[in-house]
TrEMBL record:
Alphabetic keyword roster: Signal
Record organism: Neolewinella litorea
Signal as UniProt keyword: yes
Signal peptide range: 1-20
Record-given protein name: DUF4197 domain-containing protein
One protein family per Pfam: DUF4197
Keyword match Signal: yes
């Protein structure tokens, strides 16, 4: 291939007028660079912008899906009660008035996660805007979950700090904390049990974020493996490079 390109360059140089020689030589050199590198050269701006578009798309779809009613509750990311809570509930459910407490609490903590998910976008946007060209190129040529893991490592601390108060408020809004307080109070009055009070808001926050990153990873993998989902010219051009 390289010899053919050199031959073309030589033919153009010796057969065309002088003014045309330079123009043709430049065009063929550009084409040769594209062929030898596996496609048109990508600028720093193109790679960075494409990765930001991809992350925006994945995050937007995940947040929209999970923040809808039943987004968590009727999905693979449904949040179940923590193990220590299940032990408490199993004992308390035998008491009058607590027969459906597990189902009720499970629904309410998922409702809290769905409410809190609406607050996630600005935090993700800040991390996406801070994406450098070096980060972008590494992510482009990385594993199918490279961008998700980048987001996770760069936002988990901030998300937990911002998410937990929202979860706590959301748990209050759906009366989950009130019910949990009643459950724990009733449980602690049972003779010979070890007094306990798991931090429900922290647990729900952690599980909500795990579910969100899980869905973002699914969206990233789909975009990498299915060219039909690349819905802009820039995404198609840049992600074609990782297909090579």
């Amino acid at each position: 291939m390289f010899r053919v390109l050199l031959l073309l360059l030589s033919v153009c140089f010796f057969t065309a007028p002088a003014t045309a020689q330079i123009g043709k030589l430049g065009k063929l050199a550009d084409r040769a660079q594209g062929v030898l590198s596996g496609g048109a050269p990508l600028s720093d701006e193109e790679v960075g912008s494409a990765l930001k578009q991809a992350l925006d798309q994945g995050v937007g779809q995940a947040v929209t899906y999970l923040s809808a009613e039943n987004g968590y509750f009727e999905s693979p990311y449904k949040i179940l009660l923590p193990e220590e809570a299940q032990a408490i509930v199993s004992k308390v459910s035998a008491l009058p008035g607590f027969g459906n407490v597990e189902q009720d609490l499970t629904l309410r903590i998922n409702r809290a996660a769905e409410l809190a998910a609406k607050q996630a976008t600005p935090i993700f946007v800040g991390a996406i805007k801070g994406l450098s060209f070096k980060d972008a190129m590494n992510l482009l040529l990385g594993d199918n979950d490279a961008a998700t893991r980048y987001l996770e490592s760069n936002t988990s601390g901030a998300l937990t700090g911002e998410f937990r108060p929202v979860i706590r408020t959301a748990l209050d809004e759906v009366n989950a904390n009130e019910i949990w307080t009643k459950v724990v109070t009733a449980y602690n009055q049972i003779p010979f049990v070890k007094k306990t009070e798991p931090e429900l808001d922290l647990y729900v926050t952690q599980r909500a974020l795990a579910g969100m990153f899980g869905l973002i990873e699914v969206k990233e993998t789909e975009l990498r493996q299915n060219p039909a989902l690349r819905n802009t010219d820039l995404l198609r051009k840049v992600f074609a490079r990782q297909d090579k």
